[in-house]
């Protein structure tokens, strides 16, 4: 290739690259960055839901500091994340290990576990209500038939929180299982064989060989699960509406309530921006930690 | 992937308040097409049951026939989407010409300049066709910003056998003979004694925005939540204390199910349909569902009274948007749908109550359970204009949130009555000032 042809080829390659990138950039810009920027702008305004808002600087963020309902929702969101993230990953790993072995009907089990992923959050929550409805739910019907006391799944704060966590786990374990299963199937079986020949038992192989080798899957799942948990909305909204009291209120349900029910959209947007900053901060920390791990390894 | 989901949900789901989202909604098929900008075409957005939508279609056909060349484009949407949709369209500058709105939401639009002042578009004496309480519900600073299309109000729906089993066979059917609070409490305590632990005597329909129905207790105690000029909270009163005291006692005494609080996702109607309670507050709009879903014999009795009778002024207004390019035609349509024949047909078909004086005086007969029409009409008659006028406050969205928070804390969080009233007073004051 001649000296003049090389820059032309590079230029054509660059144009092609931009052409391939442009739909994604356009969609991201239109549906992600523009709304985000707009939300940030609205969070600095006092609005009544219609027309132009008035600029109030950081006043909406200042209000958050003294809003007990915001802090309750934030604490619930953190608790929900702390419970759901490790539990869904542990259960997902356990099921993935089972399905990676010579389990009969494993294709069927795999499909059944993945099925909730195909169902919308609202449909999942409605199914959860069938199970956990205080008056006519399957669980309480079973408890009553055994002569036991029914659980106050809607009117008891702890029970309501538990019901939301359980339904979320049902929804998410399949996804965690899928990622771990993919990770397991990519592992070199020779490493397991070598460990077995060295006398390592099942638990030792799992702890010292399998789990460390699954670190990339684990890192990805931690980030995804934390982000999903911070953003939980539909299951809480349908199953408990944030109640009883504010026992299951989370940041997104609170932002929705202030933004859409009370039409205090500036304040609702401020809650959304805080959620975004928290999520970004966590993701940055996690990425930094996982990059450090990669370098060390 | 993480970034995009995070951004989408944080930006659109949580904060999702931007005009970008609004424009997105308007451009994604939620909004009626604006391409039809024909001079005589009105765009009308509503939600509705099958019976209500059929009623609207009949009304529209009659209007189009009577106004040669005029067309009304009906855009029926699910209730859950209705007001995020309308708000987005208003923000995007592409609202429908006419839409339907509950009375408790009316003020939020009228008070923020989104609705057409109908004063100069309606014929003189137009207000005379409506009951005072209905006309008061569509006023903003003494000007009409809508027409009261229909109303609804809550009465007690009861399982006849369950009440008969505890010796209650003489159930009132006239509002002026309704049970007093004390008589209702006696009935509830009899039921409590007779029912197993998994069942409860009563369910109240104050969930969600239905928290405005709690105000019925306040009105029955002859109280107010806003001052006469709607500018100050007025709930801190003997009537407020009586209303909170009576309703909060329902929970520890197990007269209502524990999941019957105001923020519960379980509706009172479902508790009644499912047999968890034999007695429930319900509106006329529930009659068709109840008639088909309930397999026991049931009746209806007026809501209880205390110092006086009182009830919620439920139902919906029809409003025209301030930016409509066809204000005259929109006003004509609003006048048409509140004509005697149109309103009668709509209300009888959809089990709703009329707002016209003549229909209230003559009475109507629901197509389903016509025997209960008089109970509901009588109950609607005890609603005062001073009660319904308060609910038309432009700050009602904020006030609803205050009522929900304070009553929830009181019913399931053991908050004392004094603290509840204090919280309501400061919350309402903030909502009015916002």
UniProtKB/TrEMBL annotation, chain B:
GO molecular function: maltose binding
PROSITE patterns linked to this entry: PROKAR_LIPOPROTEIN (PS51257), TAT (PS51318)
GO annotation terms (biological process): maltodextrin transmembrane transport; maltose transport
Keywords associated with the record: Signal, Transport
Record has Cell membrane as a keyword: no
UniProt keyword Signal present: yes
GO cellular component: ATP-binding cassette (ABC) transporter complex, substrate-binding subunit-containing
One Pfam family here: SBP_bac_1
Tree of life domain: Bacteria
UniProt xrefs under CDD domains: PBP2_TMBP_like
Family according to the record: Belongs to the bacterial solute-binding protein 1 family.
Protein's name according to its UniProt entry: Sugar ABC transporter substrate-binding protein
Protein's organism: Nocardioides mangrovicus
């Amino acid at each position: 290739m001649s000296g003049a042809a090389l820059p032309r080829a590079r230029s054509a390659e660059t144009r092609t690259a931009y052409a391939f990138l442009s739909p994604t950039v356009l969609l991201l810009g239109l549906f992600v960055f523009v709304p985000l920027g707009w939300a940030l702008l609205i969070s600095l305004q006092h609005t009544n839901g219609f027309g132009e808002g008035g600029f109030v600087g950081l006043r909406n963020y200042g209000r958050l500091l003294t809003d007990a309902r915001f802090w309750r929702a934030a604490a619930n969101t953190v608790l929900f994340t702390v419970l759901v993230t490790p539990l869904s990953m542990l259960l997902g790993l356990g099921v993935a290990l089972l399905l990676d072995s010579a389990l009969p009907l494993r294709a069927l089990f795999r499909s059944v576990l993945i099925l909730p992923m195909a169902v919308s959050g609202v449909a999942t929550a409605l199914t959860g209500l069938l199970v956990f409805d205080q008056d006519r739910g399957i669980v309480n019907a079973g408890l009553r038939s055994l002569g036991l006391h029914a659980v106050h799944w809607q009117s008891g704060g702890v029970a309501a929180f538990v019901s939301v966590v359980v339904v979320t786990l049902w929804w998410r374990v399949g996804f965690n299982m899928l990622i771990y299963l993919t990770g397991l199937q990519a592992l070199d079986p020779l490493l397991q064989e070598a460990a077995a020949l060295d006398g390592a038992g099942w638990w030792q192989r799992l702890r010292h060989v399998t789990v460390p080798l699954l670190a990339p899957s684990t890192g990805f799942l931690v980030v995804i699960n934390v982000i999903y948990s911070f953003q939980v909305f539909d299951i809480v909204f349908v199953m408990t509406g944030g109640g009883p009291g504010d026992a299951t209120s989370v940041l997104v349900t609170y932002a929705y309530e202030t933004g859409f029910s009370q039409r205090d959209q500036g304040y609702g947007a401020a809650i959304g921006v805080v959620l975004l900053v928290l999520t970004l901060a966590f993701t940055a920390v996690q990425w930094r930690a996982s990059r450090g791990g990669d370098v060390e390894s | 992937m993480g970034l995009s989901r995070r951004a989408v949900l944080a930006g659109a789901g949580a904060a999702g308040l931007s005009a970008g989202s609004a424009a997105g909604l308007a451009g994604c098929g939620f909004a009626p097409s604006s391409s039809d900008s024909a001079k005589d075409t009105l765009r009308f957005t509503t939600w509705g049951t099958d019976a209500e939508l059929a009623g609207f279609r009949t009304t529209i056909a009659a209007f189009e026939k009577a106004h040669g060349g005029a067309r009304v484009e009906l855009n029926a949407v699910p209730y859950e989407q209705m007001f995020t949709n309308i708000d987005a369209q208003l923000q995007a500058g592409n609202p429908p010409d006419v839409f339907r709105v509950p009375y408790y939401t009316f003020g939020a639009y009228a008070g923020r300049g989104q609705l057409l002042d109908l004063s100069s578009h309606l014929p003189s004496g137009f207000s005379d066709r409506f009951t005072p309480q209905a006309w008061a519900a569509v006023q903003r600073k003494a000007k009409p910003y809508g027409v009261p299309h229909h109303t609804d109000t809550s009465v007690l729906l009861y399982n006849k056998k369950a009440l008969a089993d505890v010796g209650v066979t003489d159930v009132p059917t006239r509002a002026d003979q309704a049970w007093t609070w004390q008589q209702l409490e006696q009935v509830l305590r009899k039921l409590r004694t007779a029912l197993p632990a998994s069942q409860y005597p009563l369910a109240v329909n104050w969930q969600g925005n239905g928290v405005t129905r709690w105000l019925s207790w306040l009105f029955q105690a002859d109280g107010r939540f806003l001052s006469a000029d709607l500018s100050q909270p007025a709930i801190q009163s003997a009537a407020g204390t009586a209303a909170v005291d009576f309703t909060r006692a329902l929970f520890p005494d197990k007269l209502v199910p524990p999941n019957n609080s105001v923020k519960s996702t379980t509706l009172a109607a479902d508790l009644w349909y499912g047999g968890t309670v034999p007695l429930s507050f319900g509106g006329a709009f529930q009659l068709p569902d109840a008639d088909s879903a309930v397999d026991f014999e049931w009746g209806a009795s007026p809501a209880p009274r205390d110092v006086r009778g009182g009830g919620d002024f439920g139902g919906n207004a029809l409003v025209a948007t301030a930016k409509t390019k066809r204000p005259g035609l929109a006003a004509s349509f609003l006048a048409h749908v509140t004509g005697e024949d149109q309103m009668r047909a709509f209300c009888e078909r959809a089990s709703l109550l009329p707002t016209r004086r003549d229909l209230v005086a003559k009475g109507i007969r629901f197509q389903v359970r016509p025997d209960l029409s008089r109970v509901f009409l009588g109950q609607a008659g005890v609603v005062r204009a001073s009660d319904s006028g308060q609910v038309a406050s432009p700050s009602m969205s904020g006030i609803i949130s205050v009522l929900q928070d304070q009553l929830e804390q009181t019913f399931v969080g053991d908050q004392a009555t004094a603290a509840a009233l204090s919280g309501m007073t400061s919350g309402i004051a903030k909502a009015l000032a916002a």
